[in-house]
Amino acid sequence: MIGGRVEVKVPASTANLGPGFDVIGMAFQLYTTITMELADKTTIRLQGDKLEGLPTDKSNLVYKVAAMVFERAGLPDPDLAIEMQSEVPLTRGLGSSAAAIVGALIAANELAGSPFSREELYLMSSQLEGHPDNVGASLFGGIVVAFIEEEQVPFVRLPVPKHLEALAVIPNFMLSTEKAREVLPSMYGRKDLIYTAGHAGVLIAALAAGNLNLLQAAMQDVVHQPYRMKLVPGLEEILRDAHHYGALGTALSGAGPTIIALIDNRSDNDPLHKFMVQTLAAHQIDSTVLHLIPDEVGVIVNSLRGATGQRS
Fold first, then answer.
1. Alpha-carbon span 144 to 154, nearest angstrom
2. 3 state SS of 48
3. Using the 8-state DSSP alphabet, how is residue 229 labeled?
4. DSSP character for 294?
5. What are the residue ranges spanned by the domains of the chain?
6. Which residues contact 266 (CB under 8 A, 6 or more apart)?
7. What is d(CA 271, CA 244) in angstroms, rounded to the nearest whole number?
């Protein structure tokens, strides 16, 4: 059935967790909500200050992704009424663009009569985003480990270990993924590749086994974080010293500038909170700290034609 009105709720995510560059993502209970229906004329309504500055015409990312779904399904170019609200800050490394892409794909696929499978939508979202970590976490929840092949995205979904949560310290400046990518080298030496393979392998195994004691060592990285330290003042000190204040492991969240510290929710994490804020403040950077709880469900679809919510 084509048409109707659909609402999708998509979790935010962090990517990389240190050495899992473009490979590992984790979802959190911080959401982007998109409501979409066919209309006589395209309108886009943005709610809340997190979406300020985004276009409200057909150049909006959500509309462009939705139109792509209709085109690939062999349907006419749609006019859509779209409403968006988000708890996810833009360009801060918490998967805002991934959540928008996933939400647009899922909503448009529903309106188009579900011509595409979940696996096909995952491939589309990974190709649009450029890597499968954030979009995988937003789609499926939990922890997703994945890579892109030409016609598929092989992945494994892991449940989040018991008691594992996170503190995210969000600097008050934006950092585009493009700028963060520009500082990375085009080639790496064998020593760095071996280091990364070993640490990423142990990190994935530790998360799968729920061995939180290994996270600090396993989350060390030589591929992207050392090169991005000059873009995020205070990052070097937080990565080096956060474990002294209770962090289980610390990483730049995605391309940054948010820094994420994995924590045990049974511990007193106030000292860690203060340490991260004060470290950035010493570099004249104001920040916000969010206590993030993992999302284990992934994107939620609600048909607003009277059906109950369902997991996609």
1. 10
2. coil
3. G
4. B
5. 5-158+297-305, 164-292
6. 163
7. 9
pLDDT of 59 > 80? The answer is yes
Maximum C-alpha span of the chain: 58
Element holding 84 (H helix, E strand): strand 80-86
Tell me whether domains 5-158+297-305 and 164-292 share a fold: no
Helix (H, G, I), strand (E, B) or coil at 58: coil
> In 261-306, which residue ranges form alpha helices assigned H by DSSP?
270-281
Q: Are 147 and 23 in contact (CB under 8 A)?
A: yes
Encoded amino acid at 53, one letter? G
Residue 290 CA: distances (Å) to CA of 30, 200, 269: 10, 26, 12
Cα(111)–Cα(6) distance, rounded to whole angstroms?
7
pLDDT given for residue 150 in this prediction: 84
Other CB atoms within 10 Å distance of the CB of residue 54? 16
The reported pLDDT for the residue numbered 310 is 44
**Fold for the domain defined by 5-158+297-305:** Ribosomal Protein S5; domain 2 (3.30.230)
| Tokens representing residue 160 in the block | 């989040």
| Per-residue confidence (pLDDT) for residue 305, from 0 to 100 | 60
Q: Is 59 helix (H, G, I), strand (E, B) or coil?
A: coil
9 and 47 in contact (C-beta within 8 Å)?
Answer: no
Query: What are the counts of helices (DSSP H) followed by strands (DSSP E) for the chain?
Result: 10, 12
